[in-house]
Write a structure and sequence with these properties.
Blueprint: H1 7-19, H2 22-29, H3 33-47, E1 52-55, E2 58-61, H4 63-86, E3 93-98, H5 101-118, E4 122-127, E5 143-148, E6 156-169, H6 171-176, E7 184-188, H7 199-207, E8 217-221, H8 224-232, E9 237-241, H9 246-250, E10 255-257, E11 263-272, H10 280-321
Parallel strand pairs: 3-4, 3-5, 7-8, 7-9
Antiparallel strand pairs: 1-2, 5-11, 6-9, 6-10, 6-11
GO biological process, one term: DNA-templated transcription
Domain HTH lysR-type: 5-62
Protein name: LysR family transcriptional regulator
């Protein structure tokens, strides 16, 4: 059934297509660039179509090359993982996740201990660089968690949760709003302005608050965790993600102000190359992320209910004293 498949040529093609370089593929396969070129030429002759566009100092996949790479990469990956699973006394598995520094620090890392408790033989490495990684070209990354409005139809994905933005402050800051308006508003300077543009304007308009007309001091930070730390320290009110602020709210460090007033954001999704989700460590991570996202959504609801109960109790006590 597989006797006529040119396996060496297919392996050379997968490496060159993933790295977009015959030279890099040759280094990976421990052969010469000429040998890789000959293998790919032979494969193109066997298929009767071109797989690469040969450009000055680079190569680019044709449409047929893209189709072959996507199916071949997933198939070879599954074979490699099946072979690895049969080896006795396997070493600790390693997974690399690419995500933002804020999501890693404020949501993922505080929960990661529960994953390790369940899967002690899987080590997770976090890549928090800002560059968007092409998973079809970079096999060193197993999964990405992205915050985006985009639809990644060429990747296997799991939608973790949708995000909204609300106003949060320290308990003392929130209590002070009963008698005065805030003097400092804390914001985040995002690289992708589409996802956070005019956030305070949108929230104030929806809430009917006139804070911005009184020209408060607006302090901006490059990362969400800096903005949250400033709010926790009582330096002002922060417009923050309900996802990223969840740990601070659950611990009582921050309290939501008018929690029903929320500005819609985008969504968080866990993504990988199709086929890689069947790799046992990746499958375990997907399952754990899904459970944590579900519990996180429940925790957000519970935190909101607890805050509402406290407000109701406070109003009842005030009415009783009156």
């Amino acid at each position: 059934m597989f006797a006529t498949l040119p396996l060496n040529a297919l392996r050379a093609f997968e490496s060159a297509a993933r790295l977009l370089s015959f030279k890099a593929a040759a280094q990976e396969l421990s052969v010469t660039p000429t040998a890789v070129s000959h293998q790919i030429r032979a494969l193109e002759t066997w298929l009767g179509l071109s797989l690469f566009e040969r450009l000055p100092r680079q190569v680019r996949l044709t449409e047929g090359g893209q189709r072959l790479f996507h199916s071949l990469h997933g198939a070879l990956l599954e074979v490699a993982q099946s072979v690895d699973s049969l080896r006795p006394q396997r070493s600790t598995s390693h997974l690399t996740i690419s995500t933002t520094a804020a999501f890693a620090a404020l949501w993922l890392v505080p929960r990661l201990g529960r994953f390790y408790a369940r899967h002690p033989n899987i080590n997770v490495r976090l890549d928090t660089h800002c560059e968007v990684i092409d998973l079809h070209q970079d096999a060193s990354v197993d999964m990405v968690v992205r915050y985006s409005l985009d639809n990644y139809s060429n990747l296997y994905g799991l939608c973790l949760f949708d995000e909204s933005f609300g106003v949060y402050g320290s308990p003392e800051q929130i209590a002070a709003l009963a008698t005065r308006q805030p003097t400092t508003l804390i914001s985040v300077r995002w690289h992708n302005t589409k996802l956070y543009a005019h956030g305070w304007d949108a929230w104030c308009a929806q809430a009917g608050e006139t804070w911005l007309t009184h020209q408060p001091c607006i302090r901006e930070y490059d990362e969400e965790h800096y903005a949250l730390q400033a709010a926790i320290a009582g330096q002002g009110l922060v417009l923050a993600s309900n996802v990223l602020v969840s740990e601070s709210v659950a611990s009582g460090l921050l309290v939501a102000y008018r929690p029903h007033v929320q500005v819609n954001g985008a969504g968080y999704s866990a993504l990988c190359v199709p086929g890689r989700e069947r790799h046992p460590p990746v499958r375990a991570l997907f399952k754990w992320l899904e459970e944590e996202a579900r519990q996180s959504g429940h925790a957000l609801t519970s935190s909101l209910k607890l805050f509402q109960d406290r407000v109701a109790q406070s109003q009842s006590d005030h009415a009783g004293r009156a």
